[in-house]
Design a protein that fits this description.
By secondary structure, this protein is of the alpha+beta class. Strands 1-2 form a two-stranded antiparallel ribbon. Strand 1 and strand 2 form a beta hairpin. The longest helix is centred in the middle third of the chain and has 17 residues.
Length: 100
């Protein structure tokens, strides 16, 4: 957002920055209790967006972060391609050839 930036790094430390008070992103606030509400709102919005666009790289690791004790693995929904979206090709079962 204009106010905060959340960066999830699956193999390193996640990052949260106050873009208004720290425009150079020098102070990582990911573990700060003061910013937990903003961090969790951004995290939920990111997960919801990944579900909406059916991001093919989403997994439960995106939801379960060390700084979010209340997080539980969540089913990320159907994966690409989106059935009947008029754009993605039909995915067929390898053995039967039937649409999945």
């Amino acid at each position: 957002t204009d106010a905060f930036k959340l960066v999830l790094n699956l193999f390193t430390t996640d990052e949260l920055y106050d873009r208004r008070n720290d425009p150079n992103e020098m102070h990582n606030l990911i573990d700060s209790p003061r910013y937990a509400e903003q961090r969790n709102q951004l995290h939920d919005a990111l997960l919801d967006y990944m579900d909406k666009i059916r991001d093919p790289f989403r997994t439960y690791q995106w939801a379960c972060r060390p700084w979010r004790a209340d997080a539980i693995p969540r089913w990320m929904g159907a994966f690409r391609p989106r059935p009947g979206d008029g754009y993605s090709p039909v995915v067929r079962d390898y053995d039967t050839g039937l649409p999945t």
